Amino acid sequence: VTEREAMARALDLAWRGWGRVQPNPLVGAVVLDGRTLVAEGWHAEYGQQHAEAMALERAGSRARGATLVVSLEPCAHAGKQPPCTDAILRAGVGRVLAALRDPNPVARGGAEMLLDAGVHVEVGTLAEEAAVQNAGFLHRYRNPDRPFVALKLATTLDGRIADHAGRSRWISGAEARDYAHWLRAGFDAIAVGGRTARADDPSLTVRGSVVPRVPPKRVVFDRQGDLPPSLALVRTAGEIPTIILTAPLPAALRALRAQDVTTLLVEGGGRLAGALLAAGLVDRYYWIQSPLWLGESGVPAIAGLPGLPLEDASRWRVVERRALGEDTLLVVDRV
Ligand SMILES: NC(=O)c1ccc[n+]([C@@H]2O[C@H](COP(=O)([O-])OP(=O)(O)OC[C@H]3O[C@@H](n4cnc5c(N)ncnc54)[C@H](OP(=O)(O)O)[C@@H]3O)[C@@H](O)[C@H]2O)c1
After folding, report:
1. 301 in the Ramachandran plot: left (φ > 0), alpha (ψ -120 to 50) or beta?
2. 244: Cβ below 6 Å to ligand 1?
């Protein structure tokens, strides 16, 4: 394999920690001897072995003089695990290829420490892909004022999220719904608007292949603040916290961040989606598009977004695109 292919593999492996490693980043690593992939590692569980240590342990003596390809700069600090830089030096690795610098002021500096010890270090291979994968983690250090906000909607071909009676179960198919549960597992909190909470009575729990280490909190944006006590979100608040936000959007998001919500997945409805977008508070949009039509009487996916002349329209960056059964997933990031 080439070094880029090895890094792509490291990024694939890193996903195995989704839902299990927060607040740590997702990290994958491979040991490369020439063009031969010798061993693989990933950070699987918060507080447990780091990706580099796993890959080096599996490589054994074959790590000597080899290249360690890792999706994030190796850490240089002793936390719940010993510093990865120690393991790298002990293994006799000749070269380290990292996708990204570590923004965490406590853990960073691994690159300098390895360079000082005579290990060749290069940073930047597949840096964009790695930044997309760890967007929530990176956001935490760049913007301490609010969580990383991702919007997720399942819409019809004509951009509707429910019919005239407010029914939205189900616009998307089974594969898209499995994906939605996988997605939830990696967020600190899942949010909906007050009208969705009332209309759908969702539980916003994670019921998929990944069981999150810490179940995401549930959040309802509702300026009236008078959700009926019969709603599932209210009834089960003793098991999984439910936070009801009545403040204006930026203040509400600041309050969430102050409660250690660093990543928020907003699952609609259309008015909340439009209000967040209009305020410039959405970092990523997961759009699931399903092949059906609901027509004008359906609920719009994005309501109340002010119109713009074409030259002022903001164009977002496509970071992922794939089929989920009959549905299509498009993931775009604000630039
Ligand atoms: N297909 C899908 O993916 C999907 C996902 C979710 C929902 N849905 C469907 O969407 C429908 C509900 O959507 P909707 O657009 O009618 O309502 P919505 O977005 O769910 O609810 C709007 C709510 O957000 C609250 N809010 C709080 N702060 C706000 C702010 N700054 N700006 C605007 N709103 C704010 C509003 O409070 P106030 O009352 O104070 O204005 C209101 O309660 C339901 O039928 C549901 O089934 C579909």
Report:
1. alpha
2. no
- The phi and psi torsions of 250 (rounded to 5 degrees) equal -60, -40
Contact indicator for 103, 142 with CB cutoff of 8 Å: yes
What token pair was written down for 166? 């407010």
Residue whose CB lies within 8 A of the most ligand 1 atoms, among 196, 224, 244, for a mutation test:
196
d(CA 235, CA 149): 26
pLDDT by residue (tens digit) across 176-224?
999 999 999 999 999 999 999 999 999 999 999 999 999 999 999 999 9
Helix (H, G, I), strand (E, B) or coil at 193: strand
- C-beta of 299 in contact with ligand 1 (< 6 A): yes
Ligand 1 centroid – CA 51 distance (Å): 41
Ligand 1 atom 46: residue of nearest CA: 196
Which protein residue's CA is at the shortest distance from atom 45 of ligand 1? 166
Chain segment 136-159, per-residue pLDDT in tens: 999 999 999 999 999 999 999 999
202 lines ligand 1 (CB under 6 A): no
Q: Is the CB of 295 under 6 A from ligand 1?
A: no
pLDDT tens for residues 221-278?
999 989 999 999 999 999 999 999 999 999 999 999 999 999 999 999 999 999 999 9
Q: Which of 3, 5, 52, 129 is catalytic?
A: 52
- What are the DSSP E strand ranges found in the chain? 28-33, 36-42, 67-70, 95-98, 120-123, 148-155, 160-162, 189-193, 217-221, 242-245, 263-266, 284-289, 299-300, 317-324, 327-333
pTM metric for this prediction: 0.97
